[in-house]
Hints:
The chain is an alpha+beta fold. It has twelve helices and 21 strands. Helix 9 (299-310) crosses helix 10. 44% of the residues are buried.
Amino acid sequence: xxxxxxxxxxxxIVAAVSAGAPAAEAQLGVQTRPELPEVSSxxxxxxxxxxxxxxxxxxxNYIYANYQAGPEWRTxxxxxxxxxxxxxxxxxxxxxxxxxxxxxxxxFQDPHLSGYFQAKPAAGRFPGFTMKYSGGHFVVxxxxxxxxxxxxxxxxxxxxxxxALIDEVSPFFGGPRxxxxxxxxxxxxxxxxxxxxxxxxxKVCRVAGKDLTLTWSTPPDGVLDAVPARSGESPxxxxxxxxxxxxxxxxxxxxxxxxxxxxxxxxAAAFQALIDRAPSLRTRQVVVFDVxxxxxxxxxxxxxxxxxxxxxxxxxHYARARLGIAPVIFTPPGERQDPSAGFAGEALTIKPxxxxxxxxxxxxxxxxxxxxxxxxxxAPLASITYPTAAPASLTKAKVYVLTDFGCASACISFVxxxxxxxxxxxxxxxxxxxxxxxxxxxxxxxxxxxxxxRMGRMTREGRARGENEAWAPGAxxxxxxxxxxxxxVKQWLTRSVLxxxxxxxxxxxxxxTLKGPE
Length: 518
């Protein structure tokens, strides 16, 4: 889109908004709002240019479009774009624009291929309460109605069980149907109407055994914040990014690891302090690694933490998941492989701890027909010789890993490693999911300026965890309440999990499992 065309589009939109014109609503309506033809035309011109740009960018820069891209890829790519072109006819405002772009990117089923929206919905409606997914149930989150209590179960809407309803609309938000992390993501947005034209809003929901007719109105400040800025984002649970150790019970330690991506020197120093203090935890009775809401980062940080707790020989003996990965890195035509691309400020100056076993072989480099290159490396594990017997662990602590739907990317890789350690128990809720494609910080801004696309340029061949598989605690280690309620989770661990595991005759078995898309 030329600057003149973009300016013309925005002038039409701004003029309409200034005149107090209502936005288009398509199928959504409890009531149908009229649309102005000139506004809708401007938005459709704008989204057409953005879809053209996004499709070309994905073809040029996405690893899966350029590495082993056979007929299945072509079918997926063409189908997703055709679907988006059809849906673009429904666009008449930012909410419907966002809905179509999100559905398009979500069709690739890759959380690392995502759009970062540069604007937030300026208006929306809700039925007086919002929803969240908690302990396997859909419940009222925030409520502004006297007849609806927070925590009440939302059993069904328009006669359809809530789980089936959320699974049905999940493609519009992105994420495999049936996974807990998808249900949690969709639930927090489903009862917020930002003019998504791709599904009809419910008219009646059964809440705590009573059928309630939904009346849609303007929400109070803060409610629209539940709509994430990024498509494919893991659901909001804890977002504090705290890095700290605190006492847990008379002789336990609670290790809060809120991020594995320090972006300031202060954050890096806080993570290094965790690593430095880890040896002092070896004599504790219990150590809980709390990685709820951790959106990922760099493997080196969590490996430094594990070596600090267990000692390097023991940690390196068991932590082999990442070492079985054979990286394939794609460099698009006209660009160069630059590990610092997309990073800025202090993030460029931060050096993570060393990870000695992660030594990559000399790459095999090939040039593709489009001028891009592929670098393929052997898995480090192939060149490592391990002793027959495991070294002794330096820690006597019983170790638990507390996860939730927000544990994403490198956080799931941390769980990959931890589940290889004898005696480590996964507790809490299922993790988020990802494909073997890795993320890349470099962004590509669409012509409208409304969305920036980021996508993987690396794939991790040989990774034991499959595509979009989540780690799930065993049934006895799954928390049935609000996983973001730290006080309640600690009470559950103290009163239920720890006494059971300490009981006479109790034997540890690995109950955690991987769950794929349904």
